Amino acid sequence: MRVALVGLGEIGLAAHLPALLRHPSVEVVQLVDPDPERRKTAAGQGIPVTADLTPGTTDGLSGGVDGGTSGGSTGGRSRGLTGGVEGVVLATPPWVTPELVVRFAGAGLFVLAEKPVATSVEAARIYDRLDGEQRRRVQIGLTYRHDPAIRQLKRWIDDGTLGTPVLVRAHIYDEAYDPADREHAERITRTLEHGSPVVHEGAHIFDWLSYLLGPPTVHDAWSATTRPGLPAPNLIGARLGYPGGHQALVEFGWFTAALPRCELTFLGDRGLAALDGFTFELRLSTAAGDREVRFPGDRTTRCFDLQVQRFVELYDGTRKAGVPSLDDGIAALHTAQLVAGRAG
Ligand SMILES: NC(=O)c1ccc[n+]([C@@H]2O[C@H](COP(=O)([O-])OP(=O)(O)OC[C@H]3O[C@@H](n4cnc5c(N)ncnc54)[C@H](O)[C@@H]3O)[C@@H](O)[C@H]2O)c1
């Protein structure tokens, strides 16, 4: 699978590119970013680095997006598309990603697009321009859904190990504020201009909770801003209900000098499961005793590798639709927006 990586920022270069390079069936043929500094950082790897991936603006490509629909399992390999690019990974900000998804999926390419799928449900309406076949080729970078720890949690919930219903407490805290790290402070401020942490982190959490418990109802929500001048509340939380009487108390926090522990707990009458928010180590406590469950490797490597594997399976026809799908990404955004709206 000939893949272009679009967006050479933090996650693009630190996680997507290494995972793409590790996969034996993937050839990274193009690195793309409009920012010359980012292009400079990515240069020297023997992969062409360009400012865009559209006709007439690329240096190393002969074709350009031509609106064709071939590629992958359903047609001839798409040499005519963007100089032979068959898939794109979009590691771009969510205020840029939707237009790019529509452009590339609309041209018949397979697309792995970072979460969140947009910064608002309104902005996500652009996806209505894609037809069923084009939507099917889109996979969303809700990366950690792939982790075996999430599947293990689902087994403990479904087989009654924890008892039912469960109370979920999700404490999602990240991005500690360090004024000396100007690049990080600017990036997080820029991101907050496009919504509170529930929009950005909620994409993951609401996706996991829907996968584990079903579709949510938002009961109530709150928010707080810890310093003047922040473009959005940096602390926000909500109470949600799920089918079967499950409930979730979720909190998201960014950008304070110190952060509470990032952890999700699942408490039922028979047991308690705790998921470390960073390592994804699991701890199960029941009347039978305590048990720790760890999966091999570090979470980022494990999940980004599984994500690329699923993307290749989408391309070769093993999977009929992206997992997680565009609809999954839109559903998580919908919940995040409801929470943000209720929180005020
Ligand atoms: N899946 C995960 O676990 C995970 C983790 C971190 C970030 N993310 C998501 O990844 C995305 C990127 O985050 P980041 O931290 O790498 O941000 P970043 O700002 O470091 O990188 C984004 C890059 O996209 C580039 N870009 C902007 N407009 C572009 C365009 N039109 N075409 C091509 N490139 C363009 C920017 O120049 C920048 O280099 C965000 O949506 C974020 O939510 C996901």
UniProtKB/TrEMBL annotation:
Write one Pfam family the protein is assigned to. GFO_IDH_MocA_C3
Q: Which InterPro entries match?
A: Gfo/Idh/MocA-like_OxRdtase_N, Gfo/Idh/MocA_Oxidoreductases, GFO_IDH_MocA-like_dom, NAD(P)-bd_dom_sf
Extent of the signal sequence:
none
Q: Where is the composition biased (Gly residues)?
A: 61-80
The protein's superkingdom reads Bacteria
Q: Where is this region: Disordered?
A: 37-80
* Domain named Gfo/Idh/MocA-like oxidoreductase N-terminal: residues: 1-141
What residue stretches are annotated with the GFO/IDH/MocA-like oxidoreductase domain?
A: 150-271
Name recorded for this polypeptide: Dehydrogenase
